[in-house]
Prior knowledge:
34% of the residues lie in helices and 14% in strands. By secondary structure, the protein is an alpha+beta fold.
Amino acid sequence: MRTNMTRLVSAILLVLVPAAPCRPQNAPGPTPTEVKGDSSIGKKLFENQCALCHGIDGGGGRGPNLRRPKLDHAADDAALRALIQNGIAPEMPEGWFLSSEDIANLAAYVRSIGTLAAEKLPGDPVRGMAIYEKSGCPSCHILAGEGNGLGPELTDIGARRGAVRLRDTLRNPASTIPEGFLLVEAVSREGKTIRGIRLNEDTFSIQLRDYVGRIHSLRKDELKSLKKLRGETPMPTYGSTLTGAEIDNLIAYLAAQRGKS
């Protein structure tokens, strides 16, 4: 009798007490609030992790100048955070070791330096243009569609590199050779020597652009020798041929080259 009564009470309770709502096992949880970055903390992270490539002030070095409001690979804050986390192979390593807070703080700092006023340079860009032409720079570089493409294009060099990096390159170009740039010397079986910049290479062949812009496609088994001149560049050292004032003027001209606005 007591057992039957217990069963009856349990049945009544099941009817009267509403069941708890079921949640699908795979239903997503609430979206976490986006972490708000602290630029002062981000500054310290930047100096420790990023300054080696981007410069201590973000003005550019091996990596591009970040002191500008529009960044080529980061149109908004979400893209900038993703860029810091994932990197750009092979130039920029991914930030796998950074927490969400670290990434937010770094992004906040990068955005803050993008609003800083442009560097005040001592040189005269108008005089710098004359020095650029006189020094033969167009024979190796393209600027606004003019010149030869042996070396890197300079149309937007002022947006990509800061004055410190430009000065280092002019004074000692071998110290700032770009990634992937390789000078090669090939000698044919007949003794003809070709020096140029490597464009492509595989197991059997190599393609070069020589100093006057001609393209050479060479089979390696038909060469007497092939030397890869790592750490060398055809760019002269202007620190020994230009005065300090002339270098200032040339830097001012190059810093003004920021491509299409």
